[in-house]
Amino acid sequence: MVVPVPARPYDFPFDPANAAFVIIDMQRDFMEPGGFGAALGNDVSLLASAIAPISAVLDSCRAAGMLVIHTREGHRPDLSDLPGAKHRRGRGDTRIGDDGPMGRILVRGEAGHDIIPELAPVAGEPVIDKPGKGAFYATDLETILRQRGITQLILAGVTTEVCVHTTMREANDRGFECLLLSDGTASYFPEFHRMALEMACAQDGIFGWVAPSRDVVTAISTYRGINS
Fold this sequence. Notes:
The protein has helices at residues 28-31, 36-39, 51-64, 84-88, 141-147, 160-173, 190-205, 213-227; strands spanning 3-5, 12-14, 19-24, 67-73, 99-100, 103-104, 127-130, 152-158, 177-186, 209-211. It is of the alpha/beta class.
């Protein structure tokens, strides 16, 4: 059944039975001091605002039995999946694969690669390890979604204009309907965050819809009430 969510540019025709909540890259390497985000010179505290909204939607999705998927950006320990061009970008003293306070930066299996404790996956929730910005590139995400009959994605995570936006664009090209959480995403650059939200729903939803977490939680609660 469809439960409309107040959204921009118009109501999102939310179908929880065929939707998945995709939480993108809420990793210690991006969220905490000592990780990759900080090594690039960013104020990582700017991302903390997304945690509570994501947590609220996550609790609602779990209670409703919806599919929840987590992603992590990172590379194999031998860095064989790290393009040289990506490794070379940036002029800081620390780069991907170098030692940091939470282990080797953006390397799978290291402490910094883990998802923050507040949003840790539970049993049965797929975790997609991706070597790039988009969650569909070089992963089995699309296969998982197709196998589950998923047609809609609720997207959250960091950063809004990079990994979240890339994933939204990839999903749009694959025919998925996407709703971006306006307060469940964040950026090191507040202006980039604002513009990424505007870009997502421009021209009557060129990439999808944008809505705050509270309206998604309300819609899920309505869905559960009708189906209980």
